[in-house]
Amino acid sequence: MGLTPSDAGVLRLVGRTPGLSQRSLADRLGAVPSRVVPLIDSLEARGLVARVRSKSDRRNYELRLTAEGRKMLVALRGIAEQHEAELLAPLTSEQSAQLGNLLARLAGAHALDPDLHRDMGRE
Q: 2-32 as b/e, with b when 16 or more CB fall inside 10 Å?
């Protein structure tokens, strides 16, 4: 697929929150804005993300997935679901649910962003 984990996380976050600004994205990722710019530049150059001038604040750009970005996100979701099914195959459905609840508790305790880490609210 040619994506890094950072690329995939940004695609997921922009897909879940269309119109996010680069500064807001940096805040959500816990990164300085200067580190996010090359990441967005790369995704934009590959046709996965577009910067669109904000209608409410013309000084800012909103980030949106392109049609190719949406296709990539769907493909990533399919791969993640397959991987999760393979990983959890040895567990019963009850054990899988218990693991999900425990991981959600850990994620919440460490203030992980629910838009970057799916199914965090399983309790």
A: ebeeebbbbbbbbbeeeebbbebbbebbeee
CATH number of 5-78: 1.10.10.10
CB 120 within 8 Å of CB 114 = yes
Domain boundary assignment for the chain:
5-78, 90-123
Q: Cα 53 to the chain's mean position, in Å?
A: 22
Q: What is the pLDDT of residue 116?
A: 65
- Cα 11 to Cα 95: distance, rounded to the nearest angstrom: 30
Pair of tokens at residue 41: 């530049």
Whole-model pTM over 0.85: no
